[in-house]
Predict the structure.
Amino acid sequence: MSQSAFQWWKSAILMMLLSLLMLSRAAAQSAPFDIVITNGRVIDGTGSPWFSGDIGIRAGKIADIGNLAAAKRAHTIDARRQVVAPGFIDMLGQSELTILADPRLPSKIYQGITTEITGEGESVAPLNDAIRRSGRKGFDLLGIQPDWQTFRQYFARLENQGIGINVADYVGATTVRRMVLGDDDVQPTPAQLDQMKQLVRQAMLDGAVGVSTSLEYPPAPYAKTEELIALASEASRLGGIYATHMRSESTAILQSLDEVIPIAREAHIPVEIWHFKVAGKPSWGHMPEAIAKIAAARAQGVDIAADTYA
């Protein structure tokens, strides 16, 4: 076959495939929608202002957005004077066990939450017999058999049962400490710290998104800054985040920030500060100083952010 003939056949085949694709797309567009949400104020998640529009849903997915007044549909939802938005992300949820009791998580879905990040200092994994015993009351209350040890096993259980929202988990530094040191006010030996780092590393390999602390609740306060840097560094090597409920959210908030910022810098890890506030009347007026510390760290290249209560 000559070069010119080959090019002709190549062009003909491409045109035929393009025509088939256009016909397929046209057929899909002419198919009735399962649901059309009309008259809503659409916020698309890009940061743009809201706009008026209809949303067509087919087979559980958004198939079209625009003026769908003439489109065929099985059901219509009138969202006049209401906002239509993608699902919200709960940056600090605590559904790691209740999702096993009711995989649909209606308390989240009914609020429009479709993704939850969980694991505040203590996490659902890793588990050992001592932690199972201490949590027995909660497990029994929810009717849960804690038959996993690692995040990999826990995530496999979620996949097998199905879940109603997206979830992501931090490995808790408190849980890691309890796995190796128990609940006592002790400091790890180098060998014990290596064990703790390995637990963080394994959790990250299993799918955890970072390491978290909740430093106001024992035994978490027993951990020194060097221990936290070591664990955060391990998470950082695998692309993780350090999320923290700091040692103080009241009179010692500025000192707490003076610990968090070096952790971010020395572990080379992004930091998220949870429920950022200055609690209690003696702390009133210190929020500008706290924000200024974060702003200064960001200006110096530290990847640090904070969120507040809704």
Q: What stands out?
A: Residues 3-30 form the longest helix (28 residues). The chain has a mean pLDDT of 92. Residues 291 and 306 are 9 Å apart (CA to CA).
